[in-house]
Specification:
Elements: E1 5-17, E2 20-30, E3 34-38, H1 45-52, E4 60-65, E5 68-69, H2 75-78, E6 81-84, H3 95-105, H4 112-122, H5 127-130, H6 140-152, E7 158-162, H7 170-187, E8 190-194, H8 198-204, E9 207-212, E10 215-219, E11 223-226, E12 230-231, E13 237-240, E14 246-249, E15 258-261, E16 267-269, E17 280-291, E18 297-304, E19 307-314, H9 315-321, E20 328-333, E21 339-340
Parallel strand pairs: 3-8, 3-9, 6-7, 7-8
Antiparallel strand pairs: 1-2, 1-4, 4-5, 9-10, 11-15, 12-13, 13-14, 15-21, 16-20, 17-18, 17-20, 18-19
């Protein structure tokens, strides 16, 4: 079975200033796939999305869309992609007019009312109730769903979403997810999302890439640990956390190297373990727990000195440890379990 490529990036770089550089040596996104990007504020996620949406052109390197250089594609190709901003603005009109606007601009007026009502229904906004409401007569979560409906109604090949569930209530987050899943199932849309809500992001995405410091530094739920690192005199390098606890690694490539730690490499304990060879034994608190897709494992987020460590354990282990959010635990992993970020190792 062959897979068609929607996007292909090669040696793509973008500089905001002397301090920031988006650097993506290689990335491919297949047509019909669902790809999520996770990472802290300022990591480069939004910049990358804007480049993929053809809204930012001041980059170096190569970006191909459907096999054509993005700098050379015409307006017809650009209409195959739509982008939802993190804080979308509604026109000072009715919800109906907001959703219909893009279709009218494109001259697609056939069946306009039915298409607008269908899109509102997709995002869980009853057309009979919401279509006639003004932009300032709906909640923030409803406004975000209306903005999403205005993109879905266009039925483009690619849908790019920047923090679609930020600052919305749970009902709206579920409505957004249901709408996205429906349009993907019906139309095979390529979905590209950036989000801080990693539980939601893993539910909606087939693969998740982690972005940090302008680089794609890991896949899925990998833990990313930044330097600085200092030698401790025992063939190990250490990073000291704000509460005095330390993380130990084996030989980073640079003092400011980025460590990647697989969640499966972390052991959770109810008490400080004794007699273990593992160098990293850190005290923390369980922050969140959720199912790992359809597997028999659970993802457990443990907060250590303000940093979040994602662990992957079996349901049996979680029950045996009686894990609950707020419980104090110890996490354990070997210094050798941390791998050092190298772009070529990710693709």
């Amino acid at each position: 079975m062959t897979h068609e490529t929607a996007y292909r990036l090669h040696d793509l770089k973008f500089r905001y200033s002397e301090q920031f550089l988006l650097d993506v040596p290689s990335l491919e996104i297949e047509k019909g796939s669902s790809v999520g990007f996770a990472g802290p504020n300022g990591s480069g996620k939004t910049t990358l999305l804007k480049i993929l949406a053809f809204l930012e052109k001041r980059y170096e390197g190569h970006l191909l869309f459907d096999g054509t250089d993005a700098r050379e594609i015409g307006e017809e190709a650009r209409t195959k992609v739509t982008y939802l901003l993190q804080d979308p603005y509604l026109l000072k009109r009715s919800v109906y007019e907001n959703v219909a606007w893009g279709l009218k601009v494109r001259g697609e007026r056939h069946g306009l009312r039915e298409r607008v009502y269908e899109a509102l229904d997709w995002v869980g906004l009853d057309p009979k109730t919401y279509a006639s409401r003004r932009w300032n007569e709906i909640s923030g979560g409803e406004a975000k769903r209306a903005a999403l409906a205005s993109r879905l109604v266009l039925k483009t090949e690619v849908l790019i979403l920047d923090e679609p569930t930020a600052n919305v209530d749970r009902k709206s987050a579920i409505g957004i997810r249901n709408a996205i899943e429906r349009i993907r199932a019906e139309d095979g849309v390529t979905l590209i999302i950036a989000s801080h809500d990693e539980v939601w992001l893993h539910e909606i995405s087939e693969s998740v890439l982690r972005v940090s410091g302008g680089k794609i530094v890991g896949r899925g739920a990998d833990n990313i640990i930044h330097g600085p690192w200092r030698p401790d005199g025992r063939d190990l390098w250490t990073k000291t956390l704000s509460d005095g606890q330390a993380i130990f690694g084996v030989g980073p490539p640079t003092d400011d190297g980025i460590a990647v730690l697989d969640p499966s490499s972390i052991i959770i304990s109810n008490s400080r373990p004794a007699g273990m060879s593992a160098r990293n034994i850190l005290k923390g608190v369980v922050a969140h727990m959720w199912e790992d897709g359809g597997s028999e494992k659970l993802r457990v987020e443990v907060e250590v000195s303000g940093a979040a460590f994602l662990c992957l354990i079996t349901r049996f282990a979680a029950d045996d440890l009686r894990l609950l959010p707020g419980k104090e635990v110890w996490i354990v992993f070997k210094a050798s379990s941390m791998q050092w970020y190298r772009p070529e190792s990710l693709f």
